[in-house]
Amino acid sequence: MASRQNPKPMTIDEGSVHIDPAVNKLKRILEGKPEPDFLPGEYIGNYTTIYNMCIQKPPHDQSQELYDKYGGIFEDYAKHTVLPSIMEKHDEYMLRELSRRWDINKIMVRWLSRFFFYLDRYFTVRRSLPSLTEVGMTSFRDHVYNNVHFNVKQVIIALVHKEREGQQIDRALLKNVLDLFVENGMGSIKRYEDDFEDFFLQESASYYSRRSSRWIQEDSCPEYMIKAEESLKKEKERVAHYLHSGTEPKLVDIVQTHLLVLVAKQLLEKENSGCSALLRDDKTDDLSRMYRLYHAIPKGLEPVAAAFRLHVTAEGNALIKQAEDAATSGSVEEQVLVRKIIDLHDKYMAYVMDCFQNDTLFHKALKEAFEIFCNKKVAGSSSAELLATFCDNLFRKAGNDKSNDDSTIESTIDNVVKLLDYISDKDLFVEFYRKKLARRLLFGRFNDDHERSILTKLKGQFGGQFTSKMEGMVTDMQLAKDHQTGFEEHIKNLPKGVDFTVTVLTTGFWPSYKTSDLNLPVEMVNCIESFKAYYAIKTNHKRLMWIYSLGTCNLTGRFDSKPIELIVSTYQAAVLCAFNNTDILTYQELLEQVNLSHEDLVRVLHSLSCAKYKFLNKQPASKTISKTDTFEFNSKFTDKMRRIKVCMRKFKKKKKEKTKLIMIVVKQVPLPPVDDRKKVVEDVDKDRRYAIDASLVRIMKSRKVLPHQQLVSECVEQLSRMFKPDIKMIKKRIEDLITRDYLERDTENPSTFKYVA
Amino acid sequence: MRRSSAASKKKSDSVTTDLFRSGSSKEMDRIDHLFNQYANTSSNLIDPEGVEQLCSNLEVSHTDIRILMLAWKMKAEKQGYFTQEEWRRGLKALRADTINKLKKALPELEKEVRRQTNFADFYAYAFRYCLTEEKQKSIDIETICQLLDIVMGSTFRAQVDYFVEYLKIQNDYKVINMDQWMGFYRFCNEISFPDMTEYNPELAWPLVLDSFVEWISEKQA
């Protein structure tokens, strides 16, 4: 049946009479030839023609024919017009033509699919055929793209190479062409990848491989790195401008591999300009660059961190050696050394924060480096001891040296705490520190704020147990003041005796001191008794133990010419006061009267009769004290000073303690022997043995059964906060515990231990 | 009638606790008789003098390992002394009621002791046997050296010689305890000598052996 509009069905050929001109007109328009635009009437007419042909009742339905014609139009155009026009050109011109033809094709598809639109409404859908758009695009792909892409790719890569060599190229053109590649994938990126990207990446790889070979020969490490950084930047830019974004990670990977990974060893170890050299010459910019470059590469930073660690260790070791060489007569200048180590730490910590962007790998490297050299001995002194001495000097001088204001002291304290973290024998530090702290506190050379500040910081870092004794000591001083005030109140109403100050220490917090059964001069005895009475009222259940070796006395020596005030130790005072009643005494008589040990008495007498000031005359007048000597009060003694402080010389071999006699009342140099380094080490060793025992028992009690190696490693772990236990010592303690029936060996498995309840 | 009832009474006796009456009582009598030949009549023990006499009759030296093995068999508690009970125990087990039978039993005894399953026990026993005081836990170096020689000398001559030399030279240890004693036994059995390649001081070996191995390595170097 004919339609209402057209009485007779139209055949395809008849239809073509209407369609073909329209198509040609379109082609001419698209090709830029002079041609008037389509009028709306024309447009509708074309559409209608096709529509009519489609709705003709079968067998006159021309849909299939129209569909085929449509496809034919594109195929024809592609084969006979488009493709040749591209193929006849070269290089950039070819690209341009391709790009142009592609754009044309897109528009043509759009227009023609509108003309033939009715097919898409029913025909293609019903028959599950590709849509008109698809046909148009597929046609281009099959007949044009597939034939040209190889050559096009070559051209593109050549252009890229040109650009890499520094020439300008038309980036927009490349972008268009590459978009074309993508779109010809019809939804999949595969065409782009297979037809272009793979080749491109290969080419880039060989390009950068060649580059790096040349650069690595010619350039220094910093220069190379700059070029590498530049290259990476440029390639990323390239992607942004005309490559598909998916190419970026692959491209970056290739560039990095060839420029950085494959030559890493050569680059970093370059003589005079490699990693170590940069560290040596403080080239922070270059090091930052190195970090940036290698940061993106997995495990890339490991060699850099290793070089960093080696360098810092070497610097640290150099400082240690320097200090060793400079140490004359076995005395190390710890002020200088510790300061230098602190400075070293600050310097390289800054590196870690800035150049290496706070990366944990570098924190670790720094830590390891410091742990290596901070645990070395310097001229026989352990680092723990040196650090303790450093603190001691710092706090002593704090009062006098105005250049050390509070904030400097605070920051130095912070540094000390940091350094202590690297030292494995922390308990040794505590012991030395405690002994020196005791002297500072007892002789009034301390600043309460500073002392508390460092203790707070140590507590924060290492726990309360670390600082408990020292805190107790500082608190004792506070309490002592209160006691003293109370005591003075108490004796206010009693007959005035000798001025008397007592400092009460809690045993256990303080280092142990020798006591002696000194016979005090009678004047002093009364003071002791009255304090005892006062103290008994204030507290009960506490026993007082008097440590005369730490006391000082101010005596007035009534010499013939003028009285002179003498500041002496209690021992010295006892001896001098013996002469209150008689002028002459023999050694033996003094010994009996004063009741000191031979060793102590000899030292005291030496300081009073053979040293700079001779308050006593000795018969015979030799340089040493012997048991047969006689002593006489030297009433003829005089000096221009009105106040003299008398030190006792130590006969034991010890470190520096200057025995300069200072004229005016000043810093009191402690009188009892400076603690023997050996004794401190022994004490610490003893404590360690107990600590190991306790730790082993604790572990076994909770685990009941444990193999040897695990027991050892758990023990080390538990104790690591305070010190690094020696494996041999642990083994010995285990054996001791077996003997004492705390543990036993498993009979089946002798390398396992069992807890004995 | 009466006799048989007496006999049955004896039988019923034998079912009761007295171990030493089971079996032939004649054997036990002979064992006791032998005991009395060596025992000190006032203490009713065989004392060192008696032991020496016994040894000479057995024709072994009193430092011979076989006497120690005999003591082990007897489960003797005090070094140098045998109680009657111990004597009975040992000789009964060896089925020896005369001196000759005892002498003949010794080789068999030695074989028995040297069996792997028994030797460790014997080795430990040897140590305990030398603990003379009440709360004693360790033995002095001198005695240890002698003991090592007796107990292990025939089987591990080289190790014993070296270890004894080391013990005499070193100063760290004045006594050796049971754990260290047993450690040496394990050492002889598990570690090839003198190369000692399997020895690892990080394992649970007693410290004295660590030092011993170190000393040998230094000597060999």
Quickly describe the structure.
The complex is a heterodimer of chains A (757) and B (221). By secondary structure, chain A is mainly alpha-helical.
For this entry, give a set of tags.
heterodimer, A: 757 residues, mainly alpha, 5 helical Cullin repeat like, Ribosomal Protein S5, domain 2, three-stranded mixed sheet, 9 strands, 64% helix, 5% strand, elongated, B: 221 residues, two-stranded antiparallel sheet, two-stranded antiparallel ribbon, Cullin_N (chain A), ubiquitin protein ligase binding (chain A), ubl conjugation (chain A), Cullin_homology (chain A), ubl conjugation pathway (chain A)
Protein model, in words:
The complex is a heterodimer of chains A (757) and B (221). By secondary structure, chain A is mainly alpha-helical. Among the domains of chain A are: 12-148, 5 helical Cullin repeat like, CATH 1.20.1310; 383-462, Cullin Repeats (5 helical Cullin repeat like); 479-671, Cullin, Chain C, Domain 2 (Ribosomal Protein S5, domain 2, 2-Layer Sandwich), CATH 3.30.230.130; 677-755, Orthogonal Bundle (Arc Repressor Mutant, subunit A). Chain A contains 28 helices and 9 strands. In chain A, α1 packs across α4 (91-115) and α14 (302-326) packs parallel to α16 (360-374). The radius of gyration of chain A is 48 Å and the shape is elongated. With 221 residues, chain B is mainly alpha-helical. Chain B has a two-stranded antiparallel ribbon with strand order 1-2. In chain B, strands 3-4 form a two-stranded antiparallel ribbon. The longest helix of chain B is centred in the middle third of the chain and has 16 residues, at 99-114. Chain B is elongated, with a radius of gyration of 22 Å. The A-B interface holds A 707-709, 712, 727-728, 731-732, 735, 738-739, 745, 750-753 and B 137-138, 177, 179-180, 182-183, 186, 202-204, 206-207, 210.
